[in-house]
Amino acid sequence: MDRFECTSSAARRMNSPEKLVERLFPFIKRARTLIVGQHIIHRSKSQLHFLLITHDISSRSRSEILRKFKHYPIVQHYRSTDLEKHFELKGTKLIGFRKSGLSKSLYAELKPYRINEPFRRQEPESPPPSPRRRPIAPRKRSREPSSSKRFQKKSPSKPSTSRHPRPRSAPSSRS
Question: The CATH number of the domain where 47 resides is what?
Answer without folding.
Answer: 3.30.1330.30
